[in-house]
Design brief:
single chain, 264 residues, alpha+beta, YojJ-like (1, seven-stranded mixed beta sheet, 7 strands, elongated
C-alpha cells in the first residue's frame, strides 16, 4: 500500500498545467469521436472489437496462452492500419465537418440568395403536374464527384429550366439535378441510396435524395411522381408532405437565406 501511495504522490507532483491541458485535449478528441460514431454501424463494430480484445486479453492472461499474448502485445501496428480502413466513411465525414467549419470561417460555399422562390415555384408546379423530380442543393461539401456522373447543364436555375429537366420521359428525367448557388451544374446525376431506409419504406428517388444528405451536408428536394407530394431531405432526415409555405420556410432555414435577402 505504501508503494502505491508513493507512486500516486510522485505522479501527482508531476501533474502540472501542461499535463492538464494534454489530458483535456485527448479527452475532447475521444468525446468528439464517440459523438461522431453514435448511432452508426461503426459504433457496433467498435463495441464488438473492444469486447473481443478484452476477452482475448483475459483468456491469454488466465491460461498463459503465449501465442495469443504475443499477438495481442504486437497488434498495435495492425490496429493503426485497420482503423482507417474499417472507419473510412466516419473519418471522411469528420474531415468534411472540419472542412465545412473552415469554409464557413472564410465565407465560402454556395449562396442561394433569391433562389428559394424559384425552387418553391418549380416544386409546386411539378407537384401539381405530378412530375417526379430530385434536386440537390450543394452547401459547403463539394458535390463534383456526383456532378460528373450526369450531363453538364451550367444554366440559371429558373423554374422553367427545372420543369423542363424533369418533364416526363425526357432524357434527364430519372436522374438528379445538382445546383450550386443559382446555377444547375448537371442533370441526370446518379446518387447513393440511403443506408437507413428500407426499400419498401421509401421509393428509389426518395432514398437517393436521403442518401446524399447522409454522406454530405447537401439539401435535396424530392417531388413524388406517384403522389405529387413534395419532400426535403437534410442531415439524413426527411421532411415530407410540404406545402408552399412550409417548403419556403424550410429551404430558407436550411440554406441560410432570410426573407429580406440577407445571408443568415
Amino acid at each position: 500500500m505504501g508503494d502505491l501511495l508513493n507512486f500516486l504522490r510522485d505522479n501527482f507532483e508531476q501533474f502540472d498545467l501542461t499535463s492538464a491541458l494534454d489530458v483535456a485535449i485527448i479527452s475532447l478528441i475521444f468525446f468528439w469521436v464517440l459523438m461522431l460514431l453514435r448511432g452508426t454501424t461503426a459504433m457496433a463494430v467498435m463495441r464488438g472489437v473492444f469486447i473481443l480484445l478484452i476477452a482475448a486479453f483475459a483468456l491469454g492472461r488466465l491460461f498463459d496462452l503465449r501465442v495469443l499474448n504475443f499477438l495481442l502485445s504486437n497488434s498495435f501496428t495492425g490496429l493503426l492500419i485497420a482503423i482507417p480502413i474499417i472507419f473510412q466513411p466516419e473519418i471522411r465525414r469528420a474531415l468534411e465537418r472540419v472542412g465545412r467549419t473552415g469554409a464557413l470561417a472564410f465565407g465560402t460555399g454556395a449562396n442561394y440568395r433569391g433562389m428559394v422562390d424559384s425552387l418553391s415555384e418549380a416544386a409546386m408546379e411539378m407537384s401539381r403536374k405530378k412530375f417526379g423530380a430530385l434536386i440537390v442543393l450543394e452547401r459547403e461539401t463539394g458535390l463534383q464527384d456526383y456532378v460528373e456522373t450526369g450531363v453538364p447543364v451550367d444554366g440559371i436555375a429558373s423554374a422553367e429550366l427545372l420543369e423542363g429537366i424533369f418533364y416526363p420521359n425526357s432524357p434527364l428525367h430519372d436522374g438528379a439535378a445538382v445546383l450550386r448557388g443559382n446555377r444547375v451544374l448537371a442533370a441526370g446525376c446518379t446518387l447513393p441510396l440511403s443506408e437507413n431506409a428500407t426499400p419498401g419504406e421509401l421509393g428509389t428517388r426518395h432514398r437517393a435524395g436521403l442518401g446524399i444528405t447522409e454522406r454530405t451536408d447537401a439539401v435535396s428536394l424530392v417531388v413524388s411522381e406517384e403522389t405529387g407530394r413534395v419532400s426535403v431531405a437534410a442531415d439524413g432526415r426527411m421532411y415530407m408532405r410540404l406545402d408552399d409555405a412550409r417548403l419556403r420556410g424550410l429551404l430558407e432555414r436550411l440554406l441560410g437565406v432570410q426573407r429580406n435577402g440577407a445571408r443568415g
